[in-house]
Amino acid sequence: MSFLEYAPAPESKAILNLRESYGLFIDGEFAGGGGTPFQTISPSDESVIATVSAADEADIDRAVAAARRAYDKVWSKMSGRDRGKYLFRIARLVQERARELAVAESLDNGKPIKESRDVDVPLVAAWFFYYAGWADKLDHAGLGANPRSLGVAGQVIPWNFPLLMLAWKIAPALAAGNTVVLKPAETTPLSALLFAEILQQADLPPGVVNIVTGAGAAGAALVRHPDVDKVAFTGSTGVGRDIAKAVAGTHKKVTLELGGKAANIVFDDAPLEQAVEGIVNGIFFNQGHVCCAGSRLLVQESIHDEVIDRLKSRLSTLRLGDPLDKNTDIGAINSAAQLDRIRELSAIGEQEGAERWSADCVIPDKGFWFAPTIFTGVEASHRIAREEVFGPVLSVLTFRTPAEAIAKANNTPYGLSAGIWTDKGSRILAVADKLRAGVIWANTFNRFDPSSPFGGYKESGYGREGGRHGLAAYLKPASRSLSEPKASRNAETKRSTAKGARA
Ligand code: NAD
Q1: How many CA atoms lie within 13 A of 464 on its CB side?
Q2: How far is the CA of 134 from the centre of ligand 1 (A)?
Q3: Cβ(239) – ligand 1 distance below 6 Å
Q4: How far is the CA of 208 from the centre of ligand 1 (A)?
Q5: Would you state the pLDDT for residue 495?
Q6: Ligand 1 mean position to 165 CA, how many Å?
Q7: Which residue's CA is the closest to the ligand 1 atom numbered 43?
Q8: 417-421, 427-431, 495-499, range with the lowest pLDDT
């Protein structure tokens, strides 16, 4: 079979106006940090993009103090309506600078421009628009009349959706009246720093959002800071566990969005062409660096061979290469460390007896790359069926009955998402009801909407982001419960006196 050849169609980097080095964004200004600066590189060719400051404990302290001042003096006193105006303004600026943000994200993360342009950045704007609408309607968040904000939120995010995870964290926190210190992942700080410029453009009062760059130690210092009232973390289950221990017994409210090993279940009556697209989207979107990726394909035994044949021929058409090329389907793996992990777990998959097939792609000389890969003959006990590979690797298992599919799908320490492909609505409802996963897609996969809550069971964490539930995670009821510490400094009850924001 021969395929159409595509001429290169790279998105221009000329739209970027990057600085050579970036400081921490504290109290509305960029300034150097006390840690050793580090370089952020493009994973597609290992070239240096910029030098970035690293926050030490004193910087974290300064950032939290700035957030506290902004909370006490400005943000908690401002009316919800005026907070909403700032959020609307941020959303519009994200739209205005969408192309630049998409190019920066693809450059720093390695994801294809068609994903950052058509998925990540539009969703970022949608998240801010959605929560802007909530800012003056907190009485309807499900916590009774006049709910109060929590105070200063310390937020730590991963590298797989750098700007989108930032939006998931910052938008509800601000809408609810909290101020923020956010730490992006060390391999993808760029879009958060451009976002800080957007906050300056939006005239957001200094200190309402602070961005501190650095490695795990900066995140650890942030979540442990005694003046942080709310911890919101997205990342690996191991770090989530460490954070849960660190904040246990303190007054801090916590949400943890952790890993996943989702089952994508395909029944024999499913529309196969659509199911194959859904399987591809489920695991090869964003190189499989997706917490809710459909990394375990559970396919009914009678259609196994047909599904695998169709899948292989579809994967053979995917184009791997320059993330900035508009034709690229599979971009670069985010880091050398992540590539090592994918390689290691794939080698273990072969050693444990699963059969490996990889699409025949030309792998570029420089950068971090991994061809889309399928393992068939996988057993539930194999490590590639149990552990998060977090890469473009699909583990295929089979089942005969719905009961077996449900048992296998739930046989995981995680519980973030799942997919069901079938022609029968009644089967979708019956199976979904028995799956222990926070999000279940039917005849589709990896769909996100700001109004829809997202989060997991078991080792996938606790708490929900998105929708009313995501807002409630940043609020508490007006009446104080007996177990709540007196030191709470919430001043939300005095709101609606501050100066209005321009719309
Ligand atoms: P990671 O846990 O290594 O790092 C996440 C963030 O935590 C980074 O900013 C890192 O610097 C910081 N960090 C590291 N050690 C820390 C510590 N001891 N204390 C505080 N912060 C610390 O995860 P990662 O490799 O960047 O991201 C991949 C993981 O994120 C995967 O497991 C994936 O499933 C998960 N994830 C989950 C969701 C979700 O919504 N459930 C979304 C995206 C990614």
Answers
A1: 16
A2: 28
A3: yes
A4: 24
A5: 38
A6: 11
A7: 291
A8: 495-499
Which residue's structure tokens are 């998060």?
388
Residue with the smallest CA separation from ligand 1 atom 18 is 220
Angle at 329 between CA 327 and CA 335, to 5 degrees: 120
Nearest residue (CA) to ligand 1, atom 19 = 220
Please give the structure tokens belonging to residue 124: 């970022």
- Residues 361, 134: Cα–Cα separation, whole Å: 46
Distances (CA, A) of 229 to 241, 438, 442: 18, 25, 37
What does the buried/exposed string (b/e) look like for 212-232 if buried means 16 or more CB atoms within 10 Å of the residue's CB? bbbbeebbbbbbbbebbbbbb
CA distance 215 to 217: 6
**Angle 441-446-448 from CA coordinates, rounded to 5°:** 95
pLDDT band at 4 (very low <50, low <70, confident <90, very high): low
Calpha distance 54→52 (Å, rounded): 7
Choose one of 239, 290, 390, 439 to mutate for the ligand 1 pocket test, by most ligand atoms within 8 angstroms of C-beta. Answer: 239
Please answer whether residues 222 and 243 qualify as being in contact, where contact means their C-beta atoms are separated by less than 8 angstroms: no
Whole-number Å distance, alpha carbon 236 to ligand 1 midpoint, is 4
Q: In degrees rounded to 5, what are phi and psi of residue 94? A: -60, -40
Residues annotated as part of the active site:
257, 291
* Cα–Cα distance for residue pair 231/210, rounded to 1 Å: 15
Helix, strand or coil for residue 149? strand
**Concatenated DSSP letters of 9-74:** -BPPSTT----SEE-EEETTEEE--SS--EEEE-TTT--EEEEE----HHHHHHHHHHHHHHHHHT
Q: Please list, in sequence order, all residues whose beta carbon lies within 8 angstroms of the beta carbon of residue 134, skipping any fewer than 6 positions away.
A: 84, 141, 172, 175, 176, 468, 471
The answer to whether 87 touches 171, Cβ cutoff 8 Å, is yes
Is 246 near ligand 1, meaning CB less than 6 Å away?
no
How confident is the model at residue 211, as a pLDDT? 98
Distance CA 189, CA 39 (A): 10
Q: What is the DSSP secondary structure assignment for residue 120, as one 8-state letter?
A: I
239-288, pLDDT tens digit by residue?
Answer: 999 999 999 999 999 999 999 999 999 999 999 999 999 999 999 999 99
Tell me the CA end-to-end span of the chain in Å, nearest whole number: 56
288-297, pLDDT tens digit by residue?
999 999 999 9
